[in-house]
Amino acid sequence: MAVAAARLPSPGGLRGLARNETLRNRVIVAGLLLLGVAYPFFYRMIPSAIPAPDLNNLIVMSYYAILALGLNIVVGFAGLLDLGYVAFFAIGAYTAAFLSSPHFDIHLTWWIVVWVAVAIAALSGILLGAPTLRLRGDYLAIVTLGFGEIVPLVFRNLPGDITGANQGIRPIDPPTIPLAGPWGDQLSFSNSNLQLALYLVLALLVFSYWLCQRMRDSRLGRAWMAIREDETAAASMGINTVNTKLLAFALGASLSGFAGAFVGAYQTAIFPESFRFSISITILVVVILGGMGSLRGAVVGAFALQYVNLTFLRWVGQYVNPPLNSVGRSTGIEFLENFVLHSYNFLIFGIVLVVMMVVRPEGLLPTRERKAELHGIGVAAEETAATADEVATHETALEEAGEAVTIEDLPPEDQKRDR
Amino acid sequence: MDLEQFAVILSIGLFNGLIVALVAIGYTLVYGIIELINFAHGDVFMLGTLLTYFGLVAILPGFGVEASLISALALIPFIMVITAVINASIERVAYRPLRNAPRLAPLISAIGMSFILQNVGIILLGPSPKAVPSVLPNDPLIVMPGGRTLISLNEVVVGAVTIPLLLALAYFVTSTRQGKAMRATAQDREAAGLMGINVNRTISQTFLIGGALAGAAGFVVALFLGQAWWFFGFPFGLLAFTSAVLGGIGNITGAALGGIVLGLVKSISDFYIEARWTNVIVFSILIIVLVFRPTGLLGAKQAEGA
Q: Which domain, by its residues, includes A386?
C-alpha cells in the first residue's frame, strides 16, 4: 500500500487524473452496455467466419461475471479462499425453485423471490462462516470445499417431494412483468425470450458491479483489504476481524444467491447435478485470471473465459475435430477418433492456472496494489523513475524562481528517499 | 445387532482404510514440509490406477507374460517409480517457482495441475471407467461360524502391499539421515538450510515418496475395485485429505490412523445409513473436526490461528 501511495502524483495532478479516469471509465462502460443492448438486433448478421457468441452464451457469461464479482469479495478483497462457492449458487437457485414453482405450489413473483434468495444465501454464508472463519487459509479452503460438496448432495439425496431429488425441480416460474402488448399479456425474462433475459442479467450485472465498487471504496472494503494484507495488523488497528470476514462471506454468498435465483428462473428448471465442484473452480479461475481484487478483472475474466469455453473452442473445433477424427479412424487411435476440442476445456483451464501462477500471478487486469506486491522490484524501479521526474520538476520550478537547487529544497519525502 | 455382520463391515472398512492411509500420507508429507494442500495428489493416485490398467492389458501381454497375481505384483515397483517421478516433476514445474509467492498461489497452481492430470487420464483411458483384468483371487480365507467371510484373499493382498510400505515409511522418516533432514525441513526450512540440509532436494524427496505411495495405492485400488477411471482422483483424494486432517495434518501416524478411521466410518455408513449419504457424513466429520479440534486427533504439525 505504501508503495502505491508513494507513486501518486501531486494533489492537483491526482484530482485531474481521477476525473479523467472516471470519465474514461464511464464512456467505456456506457459503450459496452450499449453494445450489449444492441447485440440481439445484429448478432445474426455477423458472418459465421467470425466466432460470435449467441445470446444464450452471452447470458451465461453475464451471470458468471456476477458470480465472479461475488467470489471476488471473498477471495480478492478479504483474501479468504472459498472452494465451495457453488453451494450458495445452489442455495439461491433452489430458493427460487421452492418459492415460485408448482413444486410446493407457491408462486411468489420473482422480483420478491430474488431478494429472499439473496437473504437466504447470505444467511447460509454466515452459518458456514461463523464457526469456520477463525481457521487459517487452507483449512478454510477445505471446509468450504466440503460445504460445497455437501449442499448439492443434500439437495439430491433428500426425498423427491422436498427437494426434487435427482430429477431436480421444473418448471420454475420465469420473472415476468404484467405488461400487455404485441408480445402477449406479459413480458417474460426466461430462456423463451433470450433478448429480455439478456437485458435482465445485464441489469443485474451492472447493479452487482456498482454494489461491489461501493463496497470496495467504503470503510468495509478498506477493512477487508487490511485483513487480506495482514490480519494481525488489521486487528491491532481496531478492525473487528471476525465480523469483517463474516460480512465478506455473507456479501459474497448473497451475490452468488442473486445469480442463482436468476439462473433458476431463467432456465425454468434446476438439477442437483449442475452444481458441481467444477463450477466453484471455474469461478475461481475467472477471479484469478482477471486479477484478484479487481472488479474489471472479474467481469472481463468471466466474459473471456466463458467466451472461450462456450463459443471459441466450439468454433475452433469445427475446423480441428473432423480432420483429427478421420486421422483417428484411419490409424485406430481411439483418442483422436473421438476428439472433441471443447471437452478438453478443463485441460486448458488447468494449464492457464499453472502458467498464470508461475508467470503472471497478478492476473490480466490487476489492481495497482497487487501488481506492486507481486512485482516489487519492477515497481521500485518505476518509483525511482517517478522520483527522478519529480526532482526534475522541482528543479525547473526552482530554477524559474531563480534559486539554487539543494537537496533541502525538496519536500521531506523526496529527501528521505534520496538519502 | 448382527455381530457377524458388523465384524464383516469392520474388516471391509479396515482394508479400505489402509488404502486411504497410503494416499493420506502423501498429503500429510507434502503439507508437513511446504504447507501446501497438494490438490494434484489424488490425481497422481489416479495415474497409479491407470498405469496398473495399462500394465495388465498392454505391457505384460506385450512381454508375453500372462496377467496373474504374481506378474501384477511385479508391476508395483515400476508403477511406484513412475508416479514418484511424476509427483516430483509436478513440484518442480508448478510449486517450486512459487516457493516465495503468496500462500494461495501454489494452492491454485495445484488445482490447475489436478485438472491437467485428470485430462491426461481422459486422453489415455477415455471418458468412461475401464475394467482392469481381475487377477485378485476372491477366495474366503477366514470364515465365521455363521458362514460369512471375514477376510478374503484379496484383502490379504491389500494388507500385504500396504502394511510393509507404511512400516518402511515409518522407518525411513524416523531412523534415516534423509528422514531426519525431512523432519528438520518441515520444522524450520530456513534453519534446516543453515544446517547444511539441501532443502530443495529434501522437498523433492518428499514428493517422490508421496508419489510412490500414491502409485502403490492406485495399484491396489485398481485391482481391488477392478476399475481404472480418470475421475477416481477427486473423490478418493478428498477422502484421503480428510483423513490427513482428521489425524492432524503433517502428522504421519495421524494420517494413517485417520485413513483407517475414515475407512471404518465409510463402510459403517455405507451399510447402516446409505451409500449416497456417505460423502455428506465424511465431509460433515471434516468440518466438525476442523471447527472443534483443528489440530486433528493426534495433533497437527502446527496449529496457527486455531
A: 379-418
Count of all residues that appear for chain A in the document: 419
N- to C-terminal Cα separation, chain B: 40
Quote the number of domains for chain A.
2
Does the residue A47 lie in any domain?
Answer: no
Q: Are residues A80 and A188 in the same domain?
A: yes
For chain B, the average pLDDT equals: 88
Q: Is pLDDT at A388 greater than 70 in this prediction?
A: no
Considering only CB atoms, A150 lies closest to which of B234, B241, B284, namely B284
For residue A350 the three cell numbers come to 488447468
Cβ neighbours of B127 in A, within 8 Å = 343
Model pLDDT, residue A60: 94
Burial of B43 (0-12, 13-18, 19+ CB in 10 A): buried
The cell 445452489 sits on which residue? A90
Are the beta carbons of B290 and A81 separated by less than 8 Å? Answer: no
Q: Is residue A329 one of the residues assigned to a domain? A: yes
Write the CA distances from B279 to B28, B114, B226, B285, integer angstroms: 21, 20, 22, 10
Domain ranges of chain B: 3-163+200-292
Cross-chain residue pair A132–B290, CB shorter than 8 Å: yes
In a domain, A8, yes or no: no
How high is the pLDDT of residue A14? 53
Q: Which segments of chain B are extended strands (E)?
A: 130-131, 140-143, 149-152, 227-228
Q: Is A135 an 8 Å CB contact of chain B?
A: yes
How do residues B59-112 score in pLDDT, each as one tens digit? 888 888 888 888 889 999 999 999 999 999 999 999 999 988 877 788 889 989
Q: Are residues A213 and A328 both part of a single domain? A: yes
What integer pLDDT is reported at residue A15 of this predicted model? 56
**Which pLDDT score is estimated for A256?**
95
Q: Residue A160 maps to which CATH number?
A: 1.10.3470
Q: Are residues A308 and A394 in the same domain?
A: no
Do A96 and A116 have their domain in common? yes
Q: Which residues in chain A are closer than 8 Å to B122, comparing Cβ atoms?
A: 343-344
**Residue A118 or A192, more confident:** A118
C-alpha cell at B137: 483371487
- Inter-chain contacts counted by CB atoms under 8 A, chains A and B: 128
Question: How distant, in Å, are the alpha carbons of A108, A185, A186, A214, B175 from that of A179?
Answer: 17, 6, 5, 33, 80
**Do A411 and A275 share a domain, yes or no?**
no
Mutation target among A139, A163, A284, A288 for the B interface, most CBs of B within 10 A: A139
Task: Provide DSSP, A148-164.
Answer: HHHHHHHHHHS-HHHH-
pLDDT for the residue B149: 79
Beta strand B130-131 with B227-228: parallel, antiparallel or unpaired?
antiparallel
CB contact under 8 A, B115 and A147: no
Q: What is the pLDDT of residue B206?
A: 93
Query: Do residues A238 and A125 share a domain?
Result: yes
Using CB atoms, pick whichever of B126, B283, B291 lies closest to residue A334: B126
- Given a cut of 70, whether residue A374 has pLDDT beyond it is no
* Chain B residues 250-289 within an 8 A CB cutoff of chain A: 274, 276-277, 279-280, 283-284, 286-287
* A353 → closest Cβ in B35, B112, B123: B112
| A143 near B CB under 8 A | yes
Determine contact: A139 vs chain B, CB below 8 A: yes
In a shared domain, residues A299 and A328: yes
Q: What is the pLDDT of residues A159-208, one digit of tens each?
A: 888 888 888 888 888 888 887 777 777 888 888 888 899 999 999 999 99
Is residue A9 a part of any domain in this protein? Answer: no
Best probe of the B interface among A72, A352, A353, by most B CBs < 10 A, is: A353
Q: Both A385 and A363 in a single domain?
A: no
